[in-house]
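[SOLVED] Need 3D model of a two-part complex

Original post:
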Amino acid sequence: MSQIAVAHHYRYLYPSELDEAGKRHRLRLATSGGVAPNPHFFNGRLLRPQRDATLLRGLMSVVQARYHVPPAMLTRILLESDPVVTAGSERLRFEGFAGCASVYARVDLLATAIDGELSNHGTTNVDFNPPMVAALGRIRDGDDVSLSVGSDEVRLQYGADSIVEKKVRLPTRWLKSFVEVQAYQARMEPVFSTSGTEAHRFLRSIPRSRTGRRGCCVVVAGRGLRMSQVPRGAHVRVGGIERLRPIESLALHAKQLQVFRDPASTASAWVLDFDDARFSIVLSPDVWRGFSGEGQVLADLATDAPEKLQRVRAALQWSTVIDPERLSQDSGFGDSDIGPTLARLGARGLVGYDLVDNAYFHRELPFDLSLIEALQPRLKNARKLVDERKVSIVSRTGTSAEAYVASSDVEHRVVINGDDERCSCPWYAKHHGERGPCKHVLAAKLYIDQNEAEL
Amino acid sequence: MKKDLEELIRDGDLNGLTGLLSKLSPEERQASSKIAIQLAHVDWTADRLSFLPSFIYGRSLQTEAAAAAALGCCTLTQLKRLGKRGLPRSYAALKVLSDRNSEWLDVWAGNALRTSPAIWPAVRLLIRAGRCATPEVPEYTMGLTTGIKHSYLLQRDLDPDDLKNVSLDDITLVDALQDDPDLLDRDLWKIFEITGTSEFSLGGHDSMARSHHRYSRVTYDLGPNLWSWSLAELSKSGKLARKRLLDCCLTTLVAESNRDRARPYRALHDELLPTTADLTERSAHYLSLLPSPIPELSTFARKIVSALVKGGHLKARDTLAYVPGLLAQRAKAPAKDAVKLLDYAFSTKDEDPSELSMIAADGLAHPSPDLHSATIERLENWAPSASSELVQRVSDLRDNVAPTVRHRVDEWLAANGSRHAHEPGGPEIENLVEMANQLDPPLAELAAIPDLLTALAQGRIATPEVRSDGTDIPRLEASDRLEPIADLDELIEACAARIEAEPKDEDDIERCLDGILRMTHLRPTDFERRTSPLRKRLMELIQLRRGINLQLALVAWLRGVEPVHEGEDLILPLPEERLTGSIGEDLTFEVQRVMDLCPLITKSISLPLPALPTHKPGWIDPPVLVERLIAWQTAEQTPTTAECALAFLRLAPEHRSDALKLAQPLRGEIGDAMRYCLGGDAEVGDSAELWAAAARTRSPWDDDPAVDQRHPDLGPDAGLAARYKFSPESNHYECIEPCWHYHGINFDAAEPFAGWVQYTQLPFPLNTLGDTSPRTLTEATPRCGHWDQDKPLPVALHTRGGPAGPTLWPLVLEPYFAKSFQQLNYSLQLDDRAQVASDLPPLLDQDVPLRPMTMHTLLLSLGVKDSMARQAAVDAASAAIEDGRLGHQSLAAYLGSLLRAGVFLPNRLAASLSFVAAASRAHSYVVSHALLGALQGEPPEAKWVKREMKPYLDLLLELLTDLKLGVDHPATRAFITALDCGGKTGTQARALLALKGMTHPRIVEEVMGVLLSGRIVRVRRWQDRRATATSD
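Solution:
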């Protein structure tokens, strides 16, 4: 059985809080982990405080939600995961997942939304405690709100008594989802966009009740959008459309809503654009399918090229928008190598993906990244099959190969033809590769990689 | 010793077991752990424990004995792995654990609570006995919420016989809590810090207590059984600090997102009787609750905040940050309260009116016209000269504003120097007319395009319906062609996918059956190796039950074994094992069909499957079927009549004359029937099912006297075409208590609306009116979908739901929709479990005619509870208006009868109709005029019935205002006039009657443009199909 949680220790020097004094507020976000034990990233002001506070509350409404509770779900895996913030070269990004990992949410505060100094770069956990989140609701646009993400001064100001320590069982799905979601986003393509007002009108029409396993389509209707049971024209298929509800109230003041879809599945992304800020949510293909189990990064994790990864990683330099051309020059690799290498870095939790910029951004997850591969049972089993010499190649020509992989009491036939990978096992029969390759395909590919010269 | 232990467990001798365990050494205990674990996993079915308090669910003595043995012998890890099976449910088992005096008892307590918080009373007993510390896990507090009374009982160490006579209702929560004073100091306060579950939480407990109280035969006071009342009582007696309780209560409510869990905290808040000073002191909490996703909490907070603001205890400006959240709520009440808060703020004169106006503008985004009206009123008063930002905001929201208020918004915008851009019109009408004139005249006539052009030329709107009955238009779409499986690899993969999960495409199973039958002779050298995973998986998954079909064909193909049907059993005589499953005496059509194919498969006789569709959804191109039947004839094989009947029903209308020529060489009864299907002459043969199918295929909507004479009394859709009559009746009415809105006991049989009946609970008021042999569909339905050798009902086989349903007789879907109709007719309160939504997509096929059964299904679906089914119906209705299947006259006729029958919840149906109307002005026209047509005849007299009409009047008013039309028809005016019963309904009725309509040329062009373009698309599609068919 795969591991469901890993021990994680949040250690905040002080609780995040909103210090209110009339119309002047100080929002202090406490940090834990990442580039330093308690890094300090930003000091400055929020230029649209009520809007930004609403976005952060929207993020928390996703993080605190659970859209699907599997029958065997253990109630003790509580929602103890704090969002992470990345301070890149010119913006702050806050990210998190719903408890069931079927929804990813991110708030991007662009350079024009914040007036202040990014003193450091990196990624860290942020304490979003309930009183602070509640206090965000009291902020109005006319208020003067300063924001700090981490602080060098707090140690003196607060003293040791204020330290907030949370030893949690961090669900592995949280960790795995971070690497899976960027793989989906990197494949997505824009489908349509509509104004914030029209988006709000559509989101209001979403049923209040849960739709369970039944999907529906969102189609363009005039200037707006509407739900439909059939795909017509530009459309996005959504399973569990109630997962869009967190953006309902946010959409009213957005400039536009951009919608993206993954051509290979029914995953979709919904980005509210506020000119100087963005709120994105990415929905997994179905409400009962968290991103963690999707297996989209297995092939990338199975590919070993440590030196290349190391050199490209060193050239990332906390870029908010990674330019492949520049990265190619800085790392010394050809353009064609950069895309796959970035995908592999994403699979290891070292970059995220921004749909609007259509580019990766540097973000190193503040968790034990060595766990990522260890948490992939399919990959572990595939390596085991190779180690136990269970793979036999029948034919190999160019990018095509036919192999038999011995399972417990039957041999599975694997046929690889370029990107088309087929297997005779039940996993493939059920999912047809939509949820990542099966262990037999992975084993065959690992075997071919390892024995390239002999084959 | 092991033997003794096992015997004691098997005997369920708990006392003996306790004695034995007390004598064992640690080593002996460890040695016995294996047998204890083994027996703890056994599902004992013997006598169940009955003497235990009810915190312990019924459990067999043997299971309890095994658990006691495990508690006495196993390690902590072993006990953790045992889960619930290793938890004590009796004094004896608990004593065994307690007597071990293990160091790990603290850890065990935490583990046990995580496994099941219901074990709390036992853990509490250990804590109070000083055997373990209080576990720091949330499950401890969760367990406390439901286990406190049980703990009180356990503490008394009552004799099991005495326990039988104790009722938990005799113990109050206050008594139980006072019995354990340590809880009051510490543990009790943690109930405000945990979320809990629906079972283990204050809400879960109180909800259960209420339910128990409601259905109890004994009268008792509920209060002492509720946490809210009990905590307040303890506060009154000074045992608990009132202010702390109040603070904790509010903190919990702010963090809570579940209505049921929030309820007791809200009740406790009220029980604590907070004073104005208390409320003022905690105003921040109430403000935080304003945008709560729980409507009750939002209302609760709004009332308090409004009172505080009104009383001057809270500054109105402090509420402003929360107003946008209230305006964004879907319900009208919070948004109206938000406007009131803005009014308070304005009245203080401290706030900038332009800032207030900016906040208020969000009200225009609300769906309620009342809110739009209230908002524009504020804008007119507060911001007569507005900032550019506000003007832009209002302009952005203008299209969302209800038509009855929109002119005020336009006036306000104009006063502020902004003129809204002219509304986009419909398609360019001249181009459309030109395109329409170039269409094939007969097909254009079918689509009623000449009528549309005439109306357009006369400057009026008309919505004539398409006249096709589905048989007179080409149906085969080139893009819908289904390719048969090409090779063995594809067949293996397709079959593997099919047995693993429900296929996304229902044609897969037909393609698999065809592939197996066509490739049954292919046996390459590596056949065994390639098919072994599929063979293995097949044998793992196979279950002989109703509905099994492909698996039987696969067993015949891969194992060479044919199934046998004996009595009620289906038998697979495999060499290693004889598999048997009970599937009943009558085989379903699908199973019988596959069983008929199995002998051919095992004998490797390769043939095409006659009924394999050539095009979606379920169509067969007639010449292809003839070729398949010739192939069978050449191989000297004869397909079963069932296979042929299915193949006939799937025949497309086109290419029939070509096929008739090709069919001349076909011999025997099948050949005759085939030619008869295609319009040829033949003498009706003996096989009733074959000829009934041929008659329906030849002319689906007409009677076939020849077939009926030869095979009479076969039921609907055999020799005689089925006829449906929908006759709601009022005398099948029995009501136990008001179920929902319409089904009140206030129903008066003398009500002038004879149709105000419990229509949705009538036993299927459907009658088929065969002149010679009237039968109800109810009679036919039980046999639908089943193949009965003695009673041939070939056409009934398609009266089934599911994805395959519409593919069985694609030309006629009336029987297919009968299933959905039956469900909807039973109750419109169906939720998603009824899966009506999945039955509706065929309605979207613009070539499916809306005949009575289909039409009733569509309309009932617009009012069903399941939102997805409603959405599907909205899609279908919108599409039908656009493609010309649905005009306002037929919609009015059906809608009128159903409205009078009281089938719908008015708000729900009105909302669905408004979604349909929102698609375009053409849709708006059809819906509004359908309502105008439906609201005629004898008006109701009872006031409550009149009030039920308000949602329809609201919708009608907005639609007609938008279309700039009035209520012209005298019958409708008379009906609406009679609805003027005062109140809001009367206001709306008067507003409707006051509408002055006139035809606006631009609106006529817009409406007619939409209608015309939809039909042009449709006719072009028919033309393309015809052209493709000719080139083929």
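Edit: The first helix of chain A runs from residue 49 to 63.
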